[in-house]
C-alpha cells in the first residue's frame, strides 16, 4: 500500500495549487527532476533523480504523488512509486496504480519512510499558511509582516503560529533551557519563567593587551596570551 493522508482544504486552495507546490518542493528541496500534470482524477506529480532522467527517459521508476478530491473541502494525497508516465498520456488517465516507495537508483537512497512524512508535513503547513510557500532563492527579498516569521534554515516566510516551515519542514520553535517551555523562534524571554533566551556569549579580557575575546578562547587573538 502507498502512504496516504487526507487534508482539509482552506484559504481558497485546490488540488492543482497543492500539486504545483509539491512539484516545486521536490525540485528545490530534494533536487529531483519533477513534473506535474492535471489528470481525470486530480493532479499527478512525478519525480526522479536528474541522472536517471538523462540516461533512461521514460523507462525507470519514479516517485509518484497523487492528489485528488476526497469529498467536500478535502483532498487525498497518495505517495508511492511506479513507472514514469508520459506527461501527455498522464493527463488522459485516471488513478495511477503504484507501489510503496522503494530505495532504488531512480528515486534516491534516502529512507523510504521519511519522504512521505516530510511531504505530508509540508502539505499541511502549506494549507495552514494559505499557500504562502516561497523558494529559497526568493526568500532573501521577502519582507516579514505582522503575524509572520522567517524560517531560520531557508528564510521562507511562515505564519507566526506555524510549527514547521512550509518550504523546508524545519521546526519553527525553540525550548527554554530552564523550564523546557516551547516558545516561538523570536521570543526573547521565556513567558513561563522569564529566562533570557538570547543570552550574550561570555567574554574575557586579556590581562596583557586588554583585548576582549570569547571566554572559551585558549589564546588571545591579538597578542597570543595563554588563558588558563
TrEMBL record:
Protein species of origin: Lactiplantibacillus paraplantarum
UniProt cross-references to InterPro entries, sorted A to Z: DUF1407/YfgJ-like_sf, DZR
One Pfam family in the UniProt entry: DZR
Top-level taxonomy: Bacteria, Bacillati, Bacillota, Bacilli, Lactobacillales
Sequence ranges assigned to domain DZANK-type in this UniProt record: 151-194
Designated name of the protein: Zinc-ribbon domain-containing protein
Amino acid at each position: 500500500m502507498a502512504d496516504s493522508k487526507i487534508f482539509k482544504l482552506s484559504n481558497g486552495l485546490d488540488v492543482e495549487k497543492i500539486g504545483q507546490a509539491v512539484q516545486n518542493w521536490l525540485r528545490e528541496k530534494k533536487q529531483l527532476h519533477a513534473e506535474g500534470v492535471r489528470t481525470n482524477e486530480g493532479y499527478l506529480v512525478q519525480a526522479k533523480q536528474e541522472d536517471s532522467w538523462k540516461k533512461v527517459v521514460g523507462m525507470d521508476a519514479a516517485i509518484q504523488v497523487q492528489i485528488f478530491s476526497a469529498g467536500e473541502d478535502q483532498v487525498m494525497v497518495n505517495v508511492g512509486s511506479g513507472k514514469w508516465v508520459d506527461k501527455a498520456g498522464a493527463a488522459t488517465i485516471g488513478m495511477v496504480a503504484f507501489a510503496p516507495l522503494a530505495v532504488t537508483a531512480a528515486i534516491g537512497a534516502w529512507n523510504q519512510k521519511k519522504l512521505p512524512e516530510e511531504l505530508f508535513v509540508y502539505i499541511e503547513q502549506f494549507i495552514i499558511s494559505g499557500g504562502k510557500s516561497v523558494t529559497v532563492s526568493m526568500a532573501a527579498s521577502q519582507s516579514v509582516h505582522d503575524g509572520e516569521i522567517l524560517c531560520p534554515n531557508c528564510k521562507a516566510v511562515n505564519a507566526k503560529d506555524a510549527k514547521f516551515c512550509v518550504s523546508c519542514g524545519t521546526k519553527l520553535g525553540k525550548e527554554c533551557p530552564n523550564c523546557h517551555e516551547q516558545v516561538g523562534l523570536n521570543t526573547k524571554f521565556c513567558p513561563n519563567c522569564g529566562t533570557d533566551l538570547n543570552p550574550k556569549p561570555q567574554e574575557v579580557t586579556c590581562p596583557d593587551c586588554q583585548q576582549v575575546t570569547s571566554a572559551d578562547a585558549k589564546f588571545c587573538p591579538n597578542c597570543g596570551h595563554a588563558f588558563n
